[in-house]
Every structure is written in structure tokens, then in C-alpha cells.
Amino acid sequence: MSNDEASAVVQTRLEEGEYERLRRVATENDLSLQDALRKAVREYVNRHGKHDPDDPFFSKPSKDPTADSSITAKKADQYLY
User: What is the pTM of this model?
Assistant: First the structure.
């Protein structure tokens, strides 16, 4: 990940045991601490976050015959692949 304007620095404190466990798991998985923390944050947010109500994937199909239904399929492809 690059250090650009699209990223944010997050700082926190861990108990010594938590830090050692994180460091050990990161090392065992050949990850830097930053990568391990990013992965942990993504997994937490994916597990506990709510879906985006504006995402067309979660909206009812339009009854308008001229509506572009491919948007939903494209979004699904982005998530899956």
C-alpha cells in the first residue's frame, strides 16, 4: 500500500501479549505487522459492517424495461473477482 492521500494512519495501543501474538501470527504468515493489521481490520469490518444501502446489488430490480440491469451484475463481478 502506498503512502498517498487515499490512506489514513491509525495508531493504537496493544497489551504486550496481544502484540506478541500479532507479531507471531504475522511472522508465521510471512506478513509485515502493517499487512497483518490491515487484514485484521478488513476481516473485522467485513464481519461486523453493514452493507452499503446505495449499492444497486441490494436494491429491488427496476420495473422499468429500459433500466440498465447490468450494473448489478458488474458490481457482483467486482466483489467476486
Answer: 0.56
